[in-house]
Amino acid sequence: MRMRKTIAAVLGAAAALLAGVAPAAATTFKVSFPKAASAAALDGRLILIVSPKATPEPRLQVDLEGTLRSPFFFGQTVEAMAPGTAVTLSPQAIGWPAERLAALPDGDYTVQAVLNRYETFHRADGSVVKLPPDMGEGQHWNLKPGNLYSAPMAVHVRHGGPPVVLTLDQKIAPVARKADTEFIKHVRIKSELLSKYWGRDVYLGAHILLPAGFDKHPEARFPLMVFHGHYPDDISNFRTTPPDPNLKPDYSERFHLAGYNRIQQQEAYGFYQRWISRDFPRFLVIEIEHANPYYDDSYAVNSANLGPYGDAINKELIPYIEKQFRGIGQGWARFTYGGSTGGWEAMATQVFYPDMYNGAFVACPDPIDFHAYTTINLYEDKNAFYAQGLVNRIERPAQRDYMGQTHSTQREQNRMEAVLGDHARSGEQYDIWQAVFGPQGPDGYPKPIFDKLTGVIDPEVAAYWREHFDLTHIVARDWATLGPKLKGKLHIYVGSADTYFLTDAVYIAQDTLSSLKDPAWGGEVAYGDRAEHCWNGDPKLPNAYSRLHYNTMYLPKILQRIEETAPPGADLKSWRY
């Protein structure tokens, strides 16, 4: 019935236009916030969510990973939005999947508005930009402390109908910091390098997993394992108590498993039992907090738009942690690993700081060769969204399921990001790639690699990406100096059916790395047959389980590497109690 009404409305509007009569105006949405929410005028991105279902509340329904599950949403940047003064969303406000607010079909909906607040940054390079600061939540607009939102409201949307008035009288609460425990400690330091770049105090954090017996063996010094990944709220997959017997089992759509929450608790507890076992080698594990105004982490490199995060992590944070928690503090005793974003970071860290680490275990990495930027060849394709044929074009896929079915396209993913924020301010995947890999534009914001609405690629920006962050190209280009430092250190794993088409870049990287001589690269590449994102190298267990074993699965190779490469007189015993 609703579809019939929608079709009728569209046909009616078309008939009115043909008859020379203007169609009824789109429903107007007016949004304001009271002085109790903020006495000051605010900048930010106003996001309107319009959903056919009421629960969960609309702001929690927006899902860029599951486009078939997402509702309508629309975005508009506001500056100096004053308390008590309503802002009217433009009928031309960009939206998804309706391209503009004016195209929202009539119907019964639950609506909600969120203001993702921006602050003004005066950076050391002279650029002035308005960005959403991280507030301890890992750069999520719908969960960010301090962001304002309206209570969900059931409305009937009708072209020519009365305005919908929304009041941003709710504020997201601060995130509680995790407390230290016997095994897990939390540190947070001010980075002088980043504070200078951003023109304000910037902090880096880390969660440290201490080995069993840390306090009882003050003479011991420990190897360091850096686990890279998305913003962590604590050490991953570590639990000192048995699984909760009363935990209601859930269902994981990603892994097609019932009771996956129980599996996670069991595996986390199993890791703890192994961690404290008598014959287990003792080492430090850290997970880093480096969320920033563009994303939930910085990609752990120095970049034009984010500043010197690579140096801040490796020259400020890592030495601080090793000093505080008795790390060995030498390159032969440091290793890095991670999956997806963390896989790219693990490889980049090893490549850009080759003497500082003794091995990188690179799982399902974000594109490590931009000839295969997921399904886009940035160097040869003209358009990121479409593959052009003789007289026809088809959309490039962005995500697929384990059966190879396309779940979203490059155009859809980028339009959804464009709705959440212009100038690469969505806080999402393609925007952080533009911010990290790209140059700064004349307006101070990242210079786009392609137009977010048309998909047209900028070849000059692509050339910049190649020389600065195409890891395969950089390794091959600089092999004369990098070769002796990277030999035997790069280990890459990916599923042959990776959800985000990350497999192809690894194929290209393998061909390139295998061709290197004097010395030969000496690493390994492995593929998980039919494995989705994020296969990390375990040939025996399915992805759902192996992803929970990062902190132990590479240990045999790490121990072998230490034995083979540790310098004479190195401490190989104090941490083996």
How is this structure best summarized?
It contains 14 helices and 27 strands. By secondary structure, it is of the alpha+beta class.
Gap from first CA to last CA: 71 Å
Helix percent band: 25-40%
Whole-number mean pLDDT: 94
Report the structural category.
alpha+beta
Largest sheet, in brief, is:
8 strands, antiparallel
Please provide the count of β strands: 27
Q: Can you identify the CATH superfamily of the largest domain?
A: Alpha/Beta hydrolase fold, catalytic domain
CATH topology annotation of the largest domain: Rossmann fold
Question: Shape, please?
Answer: globular
What characteristics describe this protein?
Rossmann fold; 14 helices; eight-stranded mixed beta sheet; disordered N terminus; 3 domains; eight-stranded antiparallel beta sheet; 577 residues; alpha+beta
Overview of this protein structure:
The chain has 577 residues and is an alpha+beta fold. It has three domains: 2-171, no CATH class; 184-369 and 471-565, Rossmann fold (3-Layer(aba) Sandwich), CATH 3.40.50.1820; 374-467, no CATH class. It has 14 helices and 27 strands. Strands 2, 3, 5, 6, 7, 8, 9 and 11 form an eight-stranded antiparallel sheet that branches. Helix 9 (471-477) packs across helix 10 and helix 9 packs parallel to helix 11. The radius of gyration is 25 Å and the shape is globular.
